Amino acid sequence: MQIIAVAARKGGVGKTTLVTHLSVASWQAGLRTKVIDLDPQTTASEWADARGDDAPDVISAQSNRLSKILEAIREDTDIVYLDTPPAAGDAGAAAIEAANLVLIPCRIQAADLAAVLRSYDSARGQDRRAVVVFNDESPQRRKSIVDETNTVLAMKGIETAPVVIHSRIAYGESQDQGRTVLETDPNSVAADEMRQLYTWVTKQLNQKGAKAEKSASKK
After folding, report:
1. Is residue 208 very low, low, confident or very high in pLDDT (cuts 50, 70, 90)?
2. Residue 218: which pLDDT band, with cuts at 50, 70 and 90?
3. What range defines the domain where residue 85 resides?
4. How confident is the model at residue 74 (pLDDT cuts 50, 70, 90)?
5. How far is C-alpha 41 from the chain's CA centre?
6. What pLDDT, on a 0 to 100 scale, did the predictor assign at position 155?
7. Is residue 75 part of a domain?
8. How is residue 74 annotated by DSSP?
9. H or E element, residue 35
10. Percent of the chain predicted with pLDDT > 70
């Protein structure tokens, strides 16, 4: 079972949007997918309520129950997404500790970038691979600014995903329906961006799994 934590010490950066869309992408790819909502605002849980009986399952939980829940679902789950609250605390730390990969959504703004450094330090402090995902970005922003920000973060040793998720009305509209753009408008640019990000994330998990198997075979 693979576990992805989506974490950032700042609100409004699109954590739940990434969680819901990536989880639906996993489900559409045939993976047994679950979401664990650790955020007291329960946005992901409310999204699931609007979906009715449609997968993926969303479990609302407190951080002190996370390890037991993960153990309980391990046998019938391929991938889990952990949605976390914006504040530093037990929930974020527990999610990062449990994760195979940590995604840190971020907009190219000073306050967001400062929060990224804190989130990244938390992940690295727990020896977890963390990757920044530029999210909710203006489609009009010059690519050179994105490239410059990538360079600045790289100089600090911070990895960024190659796929940028842009601000689009379709994301919010689909969320309001308990859906994602992968379902409401699968041929859209927004859906294509999310599929590209999902493909990249899957590749990272597969590479890690292959490395772990190779290391085990040498012992």
Report:
1. low
2. very low
3. 2-204
4. very high
5. 17
6. 87
7. yes
8. G
9. strand 33-37
10. 93
pLDDT band at 9 (very low <50, low <70, confident <90, very high): confident
The count of other CB atoms within 10 Å of the CB of residue 98 is 20
Whether 103 is covered by a domain: the verdict is yes
- Two structure tokens written together for 134: 């530029």
Show Cβ contacts of residue 205 under 8 Å, excluding neighbours closer than 6 positions.
2, 4, 79, 100, 101
- Does a structural domain hold residue 216? no
Q: Which two tokens stand for residue 24?
A: 């639906």
Q: What is the mean pLDDT of residues 6-11?
A: 83
The answer to whether position 218 is within a domain reads no
Query: From CA 155, how far away is CA 213, in angstroms rounded?
Result: 31
Residue 132 has phi, psi (to 5 degrees) of -80, 135
CATH number for position 195: 3.40.50.300
What is the number of structural domains in the chain?
1
Sheet containing strand 79-83, edge to edge, reads 57-60, 33-37, 79-83, 2-6, 101-106, 130-134, 159-160
Residue for token pair 């640019």: 189
Structure tokens at 115: 């929060």
Instruction: Reply yes or no: is the peptide bond before residue 105 cis, omega within 30 of 0.
Output: no
> Is the Cα torsion angle 75, 77, 79, 81 positive or negative in sign?
negative
98: phi then psi, degrees, rounded to nearest 5: -80, -15
